[in-house]
Amino acid sequence: MNVFNIDNINSLDAKTIVTVGMFDGLHRGHRHLVARLMATAADQNLVPVVVTFDRHPRQVLDPATPMPLLSTCDERLALLEGCGVPNVAMVHFDVATASLSACDFARSILCDRLNMNALLLGYDNSFGSRANNDFNCLPDLAKERGFAVMHDEAVLLDGIEISSTKIRNALQAGDIARANAMLGVPYSATGTVVHGRHVGTSLGFPTANVRLDDTAKILPADGVYALRASVDGATYAAMANLGAQPTFRQQHKELEVNLIGFDGDLYGRQLRVEFLMRIRDIRPFASPDELASQLRRDRETAISIVNK
To answer: What is the average pLDDT score of the chain?
Structure first.
């Protein structure tokens, strides 16, 4: 996949079809849009280009409010590549970019630099400055500059439009099944294994304490989860405690992953986990032995879920 900084492009020679968005999580609605982009490009002999941003606009426009992300920039690019996207134009989002109206953005970037012949918009897609909102004037600019404007339809789940916001809400409610159904793939996170308190080892369930690579990445609600975990190209059934350790009076939220069947040292290594199902709530136990007994039941549940 060809990823280029829009600032390094003067003007492309080939005519393009472009879609613009954050594509956070690259959910089923995004995938439908990308598939239509590719199909239309092939049908009209155009070069498909996905235009996206190096950071979420809210991280610039409202930096005091945390913006939980479904995917990091690197994860978004990997997901787009997995969908067969050949070209991604990366736009650095800053205050200057935020000040551009929709028509200014389309004129100076999409038309002048990307030689846009067609613009494909998602069903609820918009871009450009809210203070100088001329998005509804895009059809006039399209006539002036000679590009077509097309709209994709919404993708529904149980009659409701899929969106990144709805997926975030599902994750925060612990409804991993619904989040995954909207994503079309299991929700995942990647981090580095760091030293913890080694409580799991004392119980016979050694855990990898995972520190996320990007602190803006959202994690599901606290709970015990069945996972699929990957490290150095190998994949394992796994379970995780996401949250506090009330049995040991530890209230700090952590992601602790037990790789079932793994025997080795994970410290300092990258671990990727896919959240498959929420098994239960976190709760205090009367003793470490009672907790260990529950963990044995959790392990069997996790194995059965991963092996489905």
So the answer is: 93
Q: Pick one of 3.40.50.620, 1.20.120.530, 1.25.40.10, 3.60.130.10 as the CATH number of 2-161.
A: 3.40.50.620
Q: DSSP letter for 24, please.
A: T
Residue 48 near residue 146 (C-beta atoms within 8 A) = no
How far apart CA 296 and CA 290 sit, in angstroms, is 10
- Domain boundary assignment for the chain: 2-161, 187-306
Q: Residue 42's pLDDT is what?
A: 98
pLDDT bin (cut points 50, 70, 90) of residue 199 is low
92, 7 in Cβ contact below 8 A? yes
Residue 299 half-sphere exposure toward CB, CA atoms < 13 A: 17
DSSP codes, 164-190: HHHHHHHHHTT-HHHHHHHHSS-EEEE
pLDDT the model gives residue 66:
86
- CATH class of this structure's domain 187-306: mainly beta
Distance CA 127, CA 111 (A): 15
pLDDT tens, position by position, 51-64: 999 999 999 999 89
Predicted TM-score (pTM) of the model is: 0.92
pLDDT number for residue 295: 95
Contact 120, 39 (CB under 8 A): no
- Provide the token pair at 274: 């896919």
Output phi, psi for 113, to 5 deg: -95, -35
| Strands laid side by side in the 47-53 sheet | 2-5, 87-91, 47-53, 16-20, 116-121, 148-151
pLDDT digits (tens, 9 = 90+) for 153-173: 999 999 999 999 999 999 999
Q: Using CA atoms, how far apart are residues 113 and 173, in angstroms rounded to an integer?
A: 42
Phi, psi of 175 (to 5 degrees): -90, 70
